[in-house]
Amino acid sequence: MKVTIKGQITIPIAMRERFGLRPGTEVEFVATEGTLQMKPRKRSRKKASAFDHWLAKAAGSAQKGMTTDEIMAITRGED
């Protein structure tokens, strides 16, 4: 594979799928002895989205309500 004039490369789909690289995934490059490694950047707690905050707050808050049969009886007007 070649690096474009803009410094871009195309990551093969098999590698993107294997490592979970989706559009918008942030990556970082790590230089080691004679090699360059690319890896997904781990999300920091500081950059959590509003959805992440909502999900953390909502986790474990579900309560048992009516059964499907009870809901169906009410919607059908059954006694």
Helix content: 25-40%
Q: Walk across the major sheet and give the strand order.
A: 1-2
Tell me the series of helices and strands, N- to C-terminal. HEEHH
Radius of gyration: 24 Å
- Specify the structural class: alpha+beta
Total number of helices:
3
Shape: elongated
Low-confidence stretches: none
For the record, the count of structural domains works out to: 1
Quote the beta fraction. 15-25%
Task: Produce the secondary structure layout.
Elements: H1 13-19, E1 27-32, E2 35-40, H2 50-58, H3 68-76
Antiparallel strand pairs: 1-2
Keywords for this entry:
elongated, 79 residues, 3 helices, 2 strands, alpha+beta
Could you characterize what this model shows?
Helix content is 32%, strand content 15%. The protein is of the alpha+beta class. The chain has one domain (13-76). The chain has a two-stranded antiparallel ribbon with strand order 1-2. The longest helix is centred in the C-terminal third of the chain and has 9 residues, at 50-58. The chain is elongated. 0% of the residues are buried.
In short:
The protein is an alpha+beta fold and 79 residues long.
